[in-house]
Amino acid sequence: MSSVAPVVSVLIASDRVHGSLPDCLSSLERQQRAPAFEVVIASSSPPGPDAGFSFPREWIRAETRNPATRRNLAAARARGSVLAFIDDDAQAETDWLEAGVQALETAELVGGPDVAPSEAPYLERISDLLLATRRIGSGIPAHERAAAGGPVRSPHDIALCNMFVRRDAFAALEGLDESLGYVGEDTDFVHRALALGLRVRLDPAVRVRHRRRAFPARYLAQRWRYRVKTGRLFVERPGLYSGRRIAAFLSAGFLATAGTVAFGLPFLAPAALLYALATWTLSFPIWRRDPVLFPAIPFAFALHHLTYFAGLLAGIARGLLAVAAR
Fold this sequence. Notes:
Number of helices: 11
CATH topology of the largest domain: Spore Coat Polysaccharide Biosynthesis Protein SpsA, Chain A
CATH architecture of the largest domain: Alpha-Beta Complex
Strand content: 5-15%
Number of strands: 11
Number of domains: 2
Oligomer: single chain
Structural class: alpha/beta
Radius of gyration: 20 Å
Largest sheet: 8 strands, mixed
């Protein structure tokens, strides 16, 4: 390991050390104008040979799959004054490190866009369209193609697949909450940062390319887990998620269900047509550059929204049961 302390420590909690991790590391090797950096990998099995990478690399054994635990272990070993988080199935743009460090000149915590690679398979591009469409997609600006930069006001606007934080700020927040397990640990981290008065920003220049789960099975399974956890935390940790957004989404779902039950086909047919037109219109900035996505859009969004709706309800029910049992 180099005796010169790095400016940045890139931290990776990895499940795919022999899968996508080598591509992630290769993207770090291609960084231009980057400050001195190291890479710390926390995983259950060691990564392969360093393949001639020029940066120092350290591996920490972490048998648990809890991503918060793995990232905290990596942060404890890090030597840089800046901690940069990236997922092992993401690839950094060539100016990622340079842009992230510059962004921290006016903030303590910075996130950036994570969009699918342009050469992604068709089913992954469908998933990306669902996440990236404004207003009716994921609702997370970091997933959008043209995310507006500026101060972050909602804790779920950025994610740990692409985040820079000053080391002293990470220490002040006492790291990630390991009790949350998979899903929600990044939202909680940003929530606590905002509550502490730290400056949190979304910077469009800090970009990574992030693989998506293939639609429909793997994507919907992931979204189900996410929304169940969102529903639970909405009840168990008030203020972590926007009550207004969740209420609006659930209200739309209940109204659609009630209209279908009460009026049947006379309601469902025109409603389905309007729904299809809305999904095509709002996702136009994406599919106009990838027109083969067009036929699948209404059906994909219907499954996406049904999964979100059912997952939130299931999660809220679990949260209420957990609170009642205390």
